[in-house]
Amino acid sequence: MSLFIIGDVHGCFHSYLKLMDHWEPKTETLIQLGDLVDRGNFSPLTLRLAFEIKKVFKNSVHFLKGNHEQMMINYLQGEDHSDHWLNNGGKETLEQFKKENLNPESYLGWLSSMPLFWENKNVVVSHAGFSGIGSPLDLDNTDGVLWNRKSLVNLGKLQVIGHTPLVDGRPEFQSSSNSWNIDTGAYKGHCLTGIKLKKDGTFLETISIPTITKDYNSTSSQFHTGLIKSSIEGKSRI
Fold first, then answer.
1. Edge to edge, what strands does the sheet with 61-63 contain?
2. Backbone torsions φ then ψ of 173, nearest 5 degrees
3. Which domains does the chain have, with CATH numbers?
4. Given the DSSP bridges, would you call strands 123-126 and 117-119 parallel, antiparallel or unpaired?
5. pLDDT tens, 164-206?
6. 115 in helix, strand or coil?
7. I want to staple 187 with a disulfide (CB 3.0 to 4.6 A). Which of 31, 39, 93, 230 is the partner?
């Protein structure tokens, strides 16, 4: 199975749906590297779609934890005493859940169980990458795989990360660390990017979907259950 790795979605549901049209479930393992929620206008939709996809495709789909998922978890568990999440997109996300008459706590167990990284012999995927400073899997390590913004170390295998939006909206390869950053600033109105690799890390292609305007520049957040259902059923038939 080759790999289809998707960058930070940040609630850009319609752009996410369009990018998912490029996923081939029979031949590709799907990996999303975290930050499904916050910033964009449709976090509940985005989270629900990911949850339903995971239920249907199970072991061929991997949703990793990003720092925004961790902030959301901390808040829902009553451990965010400084309103860190609320001040970083969480307030708007809660309002979206309220409009959709959905309870974000129904996703708490799944969010908490998300892994911090995915790897095989040649590729490792995480939200913010391995800096070589401190314990990479420590949830509170600002240089760990949830929060790091420092240069990456070369692990002897290809790293694919997001977390730090690229100012020109283009995915970037760094030869020194043998790494791709595919956070192309979807919520900023740039684009949402996925990268396709062979399982040995050989690059195949990048696919960038210009962010659909209503994902980041609209007050509308009407719940589109039919879109989610039709998307998953369509993939199941492939």
1. 61-63, 28-32, 2-6, 191-197, 203-210
2. -105, 135
3. 2-236 (3.60.21.10)
4. antiparallel
5. 999 899 999 999 999 999 999 999 999 999 999 999 999 999 9
6. coil
7. 39
